[in-house]
Inverse folding.
């Protein structure tokens, strides 16, 4: 009988789980992983909001200047489109990072945000190309051709605005799901300790 007691005591000592605890305590690595996932999701959400604002500003410039054709206006719209394209590229990068660091429970939302970020980057690059074409046509082409180019730019900017808004919504959803997954993880490890 003393051998059985000695063996059970040794087996108990080898297990680092506290007696009433169902799972081992959270490690520093797990905590860092959770925090990195949350930070990446928040960064992606902030970048997506900025991109949506930049695309909205560019689209608004295009709408305000509808019917007016000048190289200066086309150049202003092109600058706004470039800013939106750069912001959307940052969203694409941030959502890819967030997707790579996402917790298992929020992977699907992070992947959806990454996909929407890619769509937004593509749409804003397309709008920038249309804006650059519009600048070139406003300097060289007839008023009718310049107006056609300006209309194509406005349409592309509207699509870019819609795409960046969808990316911002998806990034916000991914961030919220990551936060909720973190809370569940903390709660479950906290309740295991009692």
């Amino acid at each position: 009988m003393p051998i059985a007691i000695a063996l059970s005591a040794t087996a108990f000592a080898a297990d680092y789980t506290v007696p009433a605890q169902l799972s081992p305590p959270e490690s520093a690595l797990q905590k860092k992983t959770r925090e990195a996932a949350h930070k990446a999701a928040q960064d992606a959400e902030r970048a997506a909001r900025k991109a949506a604002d930049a695309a909205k500003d560019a689209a608004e410039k295009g709408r305000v200047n509808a019917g007016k054709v000048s190289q200066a206006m086309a150049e202003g719209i092109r600058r706004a489109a470039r800013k939106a394209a750069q912001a959307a590229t940052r969203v694409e990068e941030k959502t890819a990072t967030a997707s790579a660091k996402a917790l298992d429970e929020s992977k699907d939302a992070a992947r959806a945000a990454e996909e929407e970020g890619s769509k937004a980057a593509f749409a804003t690059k397309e709008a920038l190309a249309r804006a650059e074409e519009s600048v070139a046509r406003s300097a060289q082409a007839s008023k009718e051709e310049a107006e056609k180019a300006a209309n194509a730019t406005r349409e592309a900017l509207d699509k870019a605005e819609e795409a960046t808004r969808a990316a911002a919504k998806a990034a916000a959803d991914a961030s919220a799901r990551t936060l909720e997954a973190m809370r569940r993880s903390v709660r479950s490890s906290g309740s295991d300790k009692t």
